[in-house]
Design a protein that fits this description.
Layout (H helix, E strand, L loop, with lengths): L12 E3 L19 E8 L3 H12 L4 E5 L7 H4 L3 E2 L7 H8 L1 H25 L6 E8 L6 H13 L5 E4 H8 L5 E10 L2 H14 L3 E4 L2 E7 L2 E6 L4 E9 L14 E10 L14 E4 L6 E4 L5 E9 L4 H22 L9 E10 L5 E4 L6 E5 L5 H16 L18
Parallel strand pairs: 2-3, 2-11, 3-8, 5-13, 11-18
Antiparallel strand pairs: 1-16, 4-7, 5-7, 6-7, 9-10, 10-11, 12-15, 12-16, 13-14, 14-15, 17-18
Helix pairs in contact: 1-7, 1-9, 3-4, 4-9
Amino acid sequence: MFDPETTEQGDLREGRPPWRKAGATPDFRSPARNLRCDVLVVGAGISGALMADHLTARGHQVCVIEREQAGFGSTLASTAMLLWEIDRRLGFLTERFGFERAANIYSHSLRSVAGLAALVRDRGLDCALRARPSLYLAAGDIGAAELRHELALRQRAGLPGVFLDHAALRRDWGIEREAALLSPGAAEADPLLLAQGVLHAAAQGGATFFKAEAVRYESLGRRAGVVLASGHEIEAGAVVLATGYVLPDIVTSNLHNTGASWAVATPPQPPSSLWRDRALIWEASENYLYARTTSEGRIIIGGEDEDGMGKREDRAACAPAKAAALIAKLAALYSRAEARAETIWSGAFGTTQDGLPLIGEVPGHPRIFAAYGYGGNGITFSYMASRLVARMIAGEREAWYDDVAIDRAAP
């Protein structure tokens, strides 16, 4: 039995995330022959699960391949903070794209969190998903004036939220910061249970699952295919790459960078030691601190991000110092908490210069689609990608898809 407390998967993560309620996944069997299907999904983490579920719901014959254990790579390392707010502020994206385009992207992100919550409800998935507000704290060069400007843009876009000044944060939240934006519409979940539940929903919809590794991708006119390490081939009407933060060689972007993030989980806390409304907390800075609570009353706090760190042994060597730094930051952020690390873990993650994902057909490889560069919006963008890619496969197109295209221009 795979033990998430002690086992690493590739170079995606290591350590002990607190998601220990590992359930069963659909049966993954080794392919015994060449296969054909409508859509082949490569990867069975949360991104692949959402892709498979949605594509089967649209009537496609879907095959999913996974080289390791489903959900135990990037997904297990996730802190599953389901934020609709994007790593880059609406003000930044307004300067980059113009207000209308930037507001549209933010609105789609808000709807993605709502859509994911509806999917969990409609499928009856038991994954500890809870609606939460988000608390976006002033930090670094972003103070009260900048947050007021950000709120004004959000209100113009029809996005929810209110401004909290220093006095309100101290009085109502026990947090000493200059200001914050408080917004509804976010959520939290257990990412492993979520991925496993969605995989089961895809299986019930008719998806089939194989234990296999893709070693070569091919575009075949109106179809695409992969060659497996076993030598077998799978031909499909479309191939969807949902391989977490492992980008195949055919996917290149001058926007993308891979980094590492660390997180710790405290022991379960008494209710009096948890902040108001158990909001998702994050900072208005580039390398931001982020925090949430769990259904068991633990506090998860993460950050201390580093560029590179692609090897798990490098991340593991940094773990004691990173844990100490995160615990010190938790104590400074919220003094009522028992600031003690019970578990620590880290993982690779992909970011982009403009904070937006890379979603769409892989340039130069017709009928092969990909979704990467999720940054801090991993599961939110996974849901968004599943909807966009399904429409692209069907030949549907909207102008804003260019804003997340893999080959879009750098900011």
